[in-house]
Design brief:
Blueprint (H helix, E strand, L loop, with lengths): L1 E9 L3 H11 L4 H9 L6 H16 L12 E19 L5 E17 L6
Antiparallel strand pairs: 1-3, 2-3
């Protein structure tokens, strides 16, 4: 069983967010929250918020009584490109140069550890 959460239109470049998302992919939720809390990047705050939302979505499902929060891990986490604001800034000799202010969509999927039966 799995649950997901999506944070859309986050005003940080996807390239910067992917650096932090790579730290928590495949990690247990408790450890992932600890990593995000002590990471000194601006992207760690919206990722932590999205991860907490995914865990809450998992615990609020119909079958939530069977789930132990300690058994959850980050199954998948990825970042997609959002829209870009296009602005102009003065360059040399007064020419306008295009500036892009990028945004992204953060998706986190949380799943329960499967016990291996021998």
């Amino acid at each position: 069983m799995e649950a997901r959460a999506v944070a859309k239109y986050v005003r940080i470049s996807p390239k910067k967010v992917r650096q932090v998302v790579d730290l928590v992919r495949g990690v247990p939720v408790g450890k992932a929250l600890n990593i995000l809390h002590f990471t000194h990047k601006a992207a760690s705050e919206p990722i932590e918020k999205t991860l907490r939302s995914a865990v809450a979505n998992m615990l609020n499902n119909d079958e939530a009584s069977k789930i132990d929060p300690e058994d959850l891990f980050v199954k998948d986490a990825y970042v997609d490109m959002g829209f870009s604001f296009r602005r102009f800034r003065a360059a040399s000799m007064g020419r306008p140069m295009r500036m892009r202010r990028r945004s992204c969509h953060i998706t986190i999927v949380v799943s329960e550890k499967e016990e291996k039966v021998a």
